[in-house]
Specification:
The protein is 68% helix and 0% strand. The chain has 193 residues and is mainly α. The chain is extended, with a radius of gyration of 31 Å.
């Protein structure tokens, strides 16, 4: 065998596959997947490995503060949205009616039952009322869940997207403006009394 072919075999036999950790995703993440990006440290790194305990606490505190501002601003904007407030009232009505019918179901089960052991006996008036109340409770509770999912969640997601598109500086400014407006409204209400 010529010497050149022997060298080629040695070079190719030592090659390994690339590491799977270096692989890149072929397509973008789906709409339901939350992609978390690591925040960079002041020195430009994304890891907390070289940080002291105090620096790690400071990074976590800053992250929590930004998250609190995001949540506070989102809730303040939702509170000012009349459509959201109206839909939340409707949702509460459905939920409270469902809970009232649950209580009615248990209470009516004891009507006409001598020992209370068979409260869903359809031979008694209490049993019939109990089953009907329980069915209505399920209807109202499930309706409240569907209503929240179909009517309220899109408004909440829209507001969260709007707040997420703002820079941290803009979020702070807008939150401060909302607090100032609330203080002015409170002062006007006091002066009008």
């Amino acid at each position: 065998m010529p010497q050149g072919e022997d060298e080629k075999k040695q070079v190719s036999s030592g090659m390994t596959r690339k590491s799977p950790t270096k692989a890149k995703p072929v397509r973008d993440a789906g709409s339901s997947v939350r992609v978390v990006t690591k925040k960079k440290n002041p020195d430009g790194s994304t890891s907390t490995a070289g940080m002291t305990k105090e620096e790690k606490k400071e990074v976590r505190r800053a992250e929590r503060e930004e998250e609190d501002i995001f949540n506070t601003l989102t809730n303040a904007l939702l509170k000012r949205n009349e459509l959201y407030a109206k839909r939340r009232r409707v949702w509460w009505v459905f939920l409270v009616l469902g809970l009232v019918f649950v209580v009615c179901s248990f209470a009516s089960g004891y009507i006409g039952a001598s020992d209370g052991s068979n409260m869903y006996n359809l031979q008694t008036t209490g049993g019939i009322l109990s089953v009907i109340s329980l069915a209505l409770a399920y209807v109202f509770i499930i309706t409240s869940l569907v209503y929240e999912w179909m009517k309220i969640r899109p408004l909440r997601n829209e507001t969260q997207d709007k707040v997420a598109s703002l820079s941290p500086k803009k979020r702070r400014e807008q939150l401060a403006n909302l607090h100032d407006e609330e203080e002015r409204e409170r002062a006007e209400k006091k002066s009008s009394k």
